[in-house]
Amino acid sequence: MSNPVTFELIKTCKQSGARLGVVHTPHGDIPTPIYMPVGTQATVKAMTPREMEEIGTKIMLSNTYHLHLRPGEQLVKEAGGIHKFMSWNKPVLTDSGGFQVFSLAALRKITEEGVSFRSHLDGSKRFISPEVSMDIQMALGSDIAMAFDVCSPYPCDHRTAEEAMHRTHRWAERCKMHHTREDQALFGIIQGAFYDDLRIESAKTLADMDFPGYGIGGLSVGEPKPIMYDMLEKIEPYMPKHKPRYLMGVGTPDCFLEGVLRGVDMFDCVLATRIARNGTCFTKNGRLVIRNAAYAHDFGPIEEGCDCYACQNFSRAYIRHLFKAQEITGGRLASIHNLRFLIRMMEEIRQAILEDRFLDYRKSFYENYDITRNF
Fold this sequence. Notes:
Layout: E1 6-12, E2 19-25, E3 28-32, E4 34-37, H1 49-54, E5 60-62, H2 64-69, H3 73-78, H4 82-86, E6 92-94, H5 98-103, E7 108-110, E8 115-118, E9 125-128, H6 130-140, E10 144-146, H7 158-178, E11 185-190, H8 196-208, E12 214-216, H9 225-235, E13 245-247, H10 253-261, E14 266-269, H11 271-276, E15 280-281, E16 288-289, H12 309-313, H13 316-324, H14 328-354, H15 358-368
Helix pairs in contact: 6-7, 7-8, 13-14, 14-15
């Protein structure tokens, strides 16, 4: 069976080794490196699909766990699949539900068969196995599905991490055996917590399984960023060159730069819209809290030079007023800005790689970025 999702490596930056590529999918091409906004419940919070397209979104994520609980994958299938259900005709990636179940530590029990847990919505008993995760994702009809994995906490001992990694590998095999949808690709997920030997073993094992793409899971779970970067450096030589590499759950500007430098092609995170709803914005100088009194009489945009709808039409003073008045438009405008900021940053990164100047771009970014105002 030919794979419906393929990766084309266009070039490697001579200055840095960063990668420029394209992921080809049934619903269109995805230029990489790419930031993928997260539409947890088949919507990016506060945003319409038309707005997502206007800001340059090439792919969106949806959440297997949440859509399984509400409205249920069969309803989505009845609607014609996730693309028709959410009126989005570009690529969609669904996660496996593994991380969400991992987050329900007090409500779940992991066995070799799968994970038993209680719904965070109504407390009802639920069960997801590798096979169930595949059934849900095949019913949803995303372009890219993710294998059901076991995410280790930070910190954890070597034995705990090793057991979770080996179970992840066994579950990956079960996912491959059960997955049959021909217009959907299945990506494996590398685990191993924060141990070099385990991460390398996981990367090698998953590569031997010959998935069309690979997630890097179990990072950005509370560890210091240098540890995450070290893990990426350790596994990069063992990841297939002509397959996309997806660092899961990472979404700050500095992590984009460091991830791309270490060979990552795809990123996702809910941070952009989550902080926007609280009045916090991305800028090239660092975090800006637009609720602050300092902006009450500031009639400039959130960020000078930004091409987003919010910055082109509204002032900091106005958007601050919306937040203080508890108007939902404030959160929508901040969301538009934050999402466009990250998408535009990736556009700039791709251009820098194309022109063999990624290290220069990275240096220039950090010269302006106040790390003390990071996220």
